Structures are given as C-alpha cells and as structure tokens.
What we know:
227 residues, alpha+beta, Methylamine Dehydrogenase, Chain H, 4-stranded antiparallel beta sheet, 24% helix
Amino acid sequence: MKTKCKSIIRAAYHSFSGTVCVVVVLLIASSVQAQNLFEADTGSGKIYEFTPGGVRSTFASGLNVNGPVGLAFNSAGDLFQSDEFGNIYEYTPGGAQSTFASGVYPVGLAFNSAGDLFAVSNRGSIVERGSIVEFTPGGAESTFASGLSNPVGLAFNSAGDLFEADLGSGNIYEYTPGGVRSTFASGLDEPEFLAFQPVPEPSALGLLAAGTAALLVRRRYAIHTTP
C-alpha cells in the first residue's frame, strides 16, 4: 500500500510540476505586458490613447471642451472619466460610453480593492464645495468625507488607505477604510494630483515561482527518501 501511494504521489508531482511551470510563465508574461497610456485632453474634449511607443489614437471624442478631467480604470478594464460639468462617464474597452453618475462635479477618481469608485465632489457653490463621495459598482452613492477645501486628487495605497490632495488648505489627508482622517503632509503650495509607485509585480511573481518550485522539489525529495 505504501509503495502504491508513493507511486501515485510521484505521478501527480510530475504532472503538477509541469502545470506550475506553465502557469508561472504565463503569469509573469502577462504581468510585464506593455500598457497603453490614456489622457484626458481638456482643450479638445477628447480622450487619447498612446501605445508604449508613443503612437496616438483617439479613444473617445465629442466630450465637452474643458470638460474631461480625471481618469481611472476598474478591475474589469472599464475606463471612468470625470467631467467638470458634473458627470462621471464609463467606457467599455471598446469605447462605448455610458453615464455612470451625474450632478457630482468631480475631478479626481480612484478605485479601492472592493471595486468602489471614490470621487471628489465640488457640487454647489464655492463655499459648499469639498467632499469625497463613494459609489458602489451598481452606482449607489454615499458621502465618504466632507468639510474639505477644494479637494482634487485621490489615490489608494496598497494598505487600502485613501489619500486626498486638498488644494485649498495645502494639505494631503489620509483616510482609513473606515473614514478616519489624519494629516499626512501640510504646508504645500497647491497640492492637486497624487500617484503611488506600483509594486514591481514581475519580481514578486518570480520569487513566488522560485518558492513554489523549491517547495515541490523538497516534497519530491522527501517522497524518494521516505522508508
């Protein structure tokens, strides 16, 4: 019985180890794919798409001149665009446009890991401006933070905290997922847009592949040496 079990495990190891190699190679290859750059062009009312080599094409046109501002992709690959005339538009990868929200007067956009969209909202008079609203994937809106002074840029870090560039106060605020605010930086001239340096995924996947391979080799060695 012991010999039969060891033979089955060895056979499973051989087939599984081959699968692991293929999957790891595919993951690494997909993670280092060239990415196109998208740009909201306020002067022309267009969204341009650039290849890594700098070749430009028009992804969307016919938008309000001086309208398109912030851009953000969700995990499904749909592009969301904020509009200073009060709207948030959603675009499929093929460029089909729909209105996701209206009456928001947003600038910065950012998605959290759960797929909720966060947008700064400057609706109302200049005195009333200053909140961050949260939208579920289905479009339900709630207020995440208020009482800000002309918020502009938003960005999430890898821990899920939201950072907001507050133009009017010269501060950068940090919010926990529960909405607790603290001042991350102050005394800035005109903070507007934020971006976090991404984690180098190919390196992480390479380490994962090495660790998986080493684990399988150790298991195989243990199988052959077990009396």
